[in-house]
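**Protein record**
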Amino acid sequence: MKLGIISDVHADLPSLIAALELLTKRGADRIICAGDLVERGPDGEAVVQTFKSREIPSVRGNHDLAVIANQRWLREAFYAGDPRVTSRLLTEEALQYLHELPPTMNLVLGDEGSEEQTHLVVAHGIPSSDAVYLYTHSNRRAFNNAINDARDIDPQVRVLILGHTHQPMIAQVGDVYVINPGSVCGVHTQGSSSCGLLTLPEFRFEVFDLVTGMRIVAPMIEPS
């Protein structure tokens, strides 16, 4: 089983399409997202429509949560025909889609009843907060807190998938892997322009650069 993982698209349609094409070529059986579909870039509406048409599951990021209030401000602060804002406005349908995204996602991959089944939890920041950053240099307590959050969702969790930091990461804490594919977007905001591919049941996680298509070395870390 190969699971394609993306995160932090930030309304960058060309990079999203590049990520989907790269993961498909690399043999992804399905693709999921760790949140922040919109804001920063200009293609929010098109990104949402791509997620809907391709039925890509995603959790809700902090920008997906904040976008409704931010869109209200845009409509009040600029006149309707202002070219600085018209391309960034989202339809009510898109806003409703973002509003309905779940804060976390629980997946069980593999044949039912098989010893090779893998339990995964997906969140944006950490499962209890979309605003918390978990970096490679975060301490062991921060990782333990995130994993305990995930175990509240699924006591059998083996993989915790996060986004938010825009930095690829793979860490092992006990028998749980914590992974982050980095950010799809690297143009409209600082980010890695990358995506990830998780192969199960081997627990092999690879990160790929969206510009070159080459594999990025993401060293395994053991938080201290």
Observations:
- Helices lie at 13-25, 44-54, 62-77, 83-86, 92-99, 140-153.
